[in-house]
Every structure is written in structure tokens, then in C-alpha cells.
Amino acid sequence: MIDFTGRQPTSALYIYAIAGYLLFLIALSVYRSRAVKTQDDFMVAGRRVSTFFLVGSLVCTWIGSGSLFGGAGRAFREGFSALWMSAGAWAGIAVIYFLAHRVRRIAQYTVPDILEMRYTPTARLLGTVAIVIAYLTIAGYQFIGGGRLLHLLTGIEPVYGQAATCGLVILYTVLAGMMSIVVLDIFNGLLIAGGILVATPFVFQAAGGWAGLAEALPDSHFSVFGGLGLLPALGLFFPTFFLLLGESSMYQKFMSARDEGSARRAVVGMILGVVVVEVLLDSVAIFGAAIYWNDPAFVNSDGTFQARATETILLQVARFDLPPLIGVLLMAGAVAIIFSTASSFLLIPSTNVIRDIYQRFVHPQASESDLIQLQRWVIVGLAMAAFVISSFFESILAMALYAYTMVGAAVTPALLAAFLWKRVTEAGGTASVASGVAVTIIYAALNSVGITDLDYDFIIYPAGGTSIAVLIVVSLLTPPSPESKWMPFQTRIDTD
User: Fold this and answer.
1) In terms of C-beta density within 10 A (0-12 exposed, 13-18 middle, 19 or more buried), how is residue 479 classed?
2) Tens of pLDDT along 220-252?
3) Using the 8-state DSSP alphabet, how is residue 304 labeled?
4) Residue 378: inside a domain, yes or no?
5) Does a structural domain hold residue 473?
6) H or E stretch including 229?
7) Cβ 182 vs Cβ 59: under 8 Å
8) Neighbours of 146 (CB within 10 A)
9) In sequence order, which ranges of 246-304 are alpha helices (DSSP H)?
10) Handedness of CA 291, 296, 302, 305 (dihedral sign)
11) Residue 297 structural domain
12) How many domains does the chain have?
């Protein structure tokens, strides 16, 4: 880990502001926990969430450390072509607009609920495995982000900062589940948007404006595909596109909406919020690249950029290149991103474990109070597992692409087919989920043991392609599903 803390004395202002904000989050979670009485309250906020709160929660769920660190680091190294990663999400959200009200009408708890309803219990179990693996990976790199932030501010070893972040996220999540997340995400969303909006013109000025950018950065930073070409650009686009279409926390939050109209209107607000915030995050990272382009702290001995160092660029400019109050606001926005995303991506897999494994296969008659208490312990266990998983990857971007592909290849094709293709069969959907999980795991395993050195930019091609092909071929080779299976998903919903 590059040490930047010697550049100027650590300001107590940053530490006090962030500590105060975290105390506010915990206090509000404690207050909201008193309203948790049922499984509906903990898992889907009692299905009473309005459009306004749902928009804030959806935006905060998507804008995580993948954008704050992985996407920003890519923008530092490659320029505006890094937005291909964000563009996949924008396209996915546009498709989700036409599904959100259908998801709310079905009114289940989890995506694996839907997979079993349309396909088989095996599809439910395999979908749960895929979601748990992916979401623990995503939660893990939120902890890495927290560790890097605390290292920058205090100089403590990143691993200790990761542990502290993990502990605080556990506390934040177990108190009230979705009840606290959807309320607190309004504050988090405002802080994220406000921090990046205010900081952008200051960083642009610090970089020397357009003249400074043009002088410091290569021309490829301002081209459509950057210096890598079409296939790597699409390798960034498709994982986020397919993840968004199968993103369990989105669907679980649609199920939290008070009605179908609220769910659908929230998607419109989400796409506006995500586009604005992600464009500004990458822009600030590029402006920061102009400031630090020749800084040896960001460069390996062979002249290439250090991925881990470039992934801290937003924190660097917040700490060293902005007026203190503006820097504190941006840094607090980073904290909001980390905690909001980490809590959502622990709550969802814990819900999957409780709802889709324990309650479905182990103890169907468990009481609601027992299920809530058990889910809290599961959150603790999953957070520990996420902490361990975070040590297996070289960069946050690699973790993000792996996690996005796990969901995008294993869950999304079967999930979309449930709503959009009545000819899909139980065997086709189940085989699609199984093949997506298998290919993604094999790809990562070959990389981890050194048999291959495959770039994670390309993981979506074998995994997603296999899953879609298996879905189509197996469905066409097996008898059509009975009408009772596909009718709930195909019925048109009245316009709200």
C-alpha cells in the first residue's frame, strides 16, 4: 500500500467529521431498530417504502466502492473510456424500468424466490450460491475501501482499517436491516451527490482546466474506447449491464415499495442519480490524474501505473487538493458510499441464506423473531467471510468484474427469461444458472492458481455466453412449461 500520509499533517477536521457522521448513522439505526417487529420489517422494510426513499436507497446501493475506487482508478489510467463500466448500469436500469412493477406485484422477498417460483428448488439454491459469493466479494471491497480511507487519514495499516470498517458495518446492518438502510440512504445519497457536485469544479481548477488536462494526459484519455479498444470496453459494459438486470438488492428494494407505481417511478429517479454521480466521479478521477500523472507514488518500477494506488485518487484529491471543508464533504461522501453499499450487500445474502436455505429447506416453521435473530448472526458470519475473500484479489476493479459476472452470468439470463420468454423451461432456467456459476468459478480458479493469466475484463464473454446458450438450447429441447408456471410473470400490468 502506497503511503501518502507524509504529504501534510493529518487534519483532525477530517477525522472528527467522519466520526460524527458514523455516530449519526449508528444512532439512527438504533432508533429505527425499535420498529422492527416482523420478517417483512427486517427484510423488505414492511413493504411501505415511498418513491422518494426508494430512489435514495437504489442510488446508494449501486454507487459503491466499485465506482469510488475501481471505476475511478480505471478512469485515472484510461480516461473517459472508463465510463463504459458505468454505461452498462445505465442501460440495465433502463431495462429494469419495464420490470420493476412486475417484480413488486409478485411480492416475494428475494430473487431466488422468483427462480423457484418460475423454475425449480435447485435453481433457487444455485441462485442463492451465486448471489452469496458475488455479494460477499462486493462487501469485501467496501471493507478494503474503508481500510484505504482510514490509512490515508490516520496512517494505520490498511488491514486494521478494513477490520474497523467491517465491525462498524456489521453494527450498522444488524440493528434494523432494511428499515434502517432505506431511511439512512436518503442522508447518504444527499451527502454523496452534494460532495461530488461541490468538489468537481475545485478539482478541475486544481488540474489547470482543459488546458492543464490536455497538456498532462494522453489523447487516448479523451477518446471513446481509450487506449485498449472495443472488446475491453465491452468487457466493462456487459458485466455491469447483466449485474444490474439481476441485482438482488434492487429487486428486494422493489419488493419493499409501497406499491407498483412507486417501484417504477423510483427507477426513473435512480437512472438520473446514477448517471450524474458516476460521470462526476470518473471526471474527478481524470482531473486528479492530471495532477498526479507524473507522481512516482502511482508508478511501478517498469513505468506502468499501480492499480491500487490509482484506485485511491478520489481520496487523494479530497485530502490534499481541495479546501478543507470541501475535502471533508467529499471524504464524508466516500464514507457514505462505503457504508451504504456494504450494508446492502450484507443484508441481501443474509436474507438469501435465511429465506432461501434455512427457512425453505431446514426449518420452514421457524418463528419470525427467531428468523430475525438468526439473520443478524448470519450477517456477522458473512461479514467475516467477506473480510477473508478480500485478500484473494489484486485490485478492487478485478473484484468488481468477478462479482458482477457471477450474478450477471448465473442469475440474470434465467431471471429475465422468467419475465420475458414464456417458452423458457424449468430445465433450461436451472441449467443456465448452474452453467453461469460453474464457468465463473472455473475462470477465477484458473487465475488464482496461476494456470492462466486471464484479464477480468473478458470474464463476461465465456460465462455469460455459456449461460445464455444453455438457457436457449435446453429450453428448446425440453417440453414447454405449463401455463401456471409462466402466467404470473407474463401477465401485463395496468399502467400506473
Assistant:
1) exposed
2) 999 988 877 788 888 888 888 887 777 776 666
3) P
4) yes
5) no
6) none
7) no
8) 25
9) 248-256, 260-292
10) negative
11) 17-392
12) 1
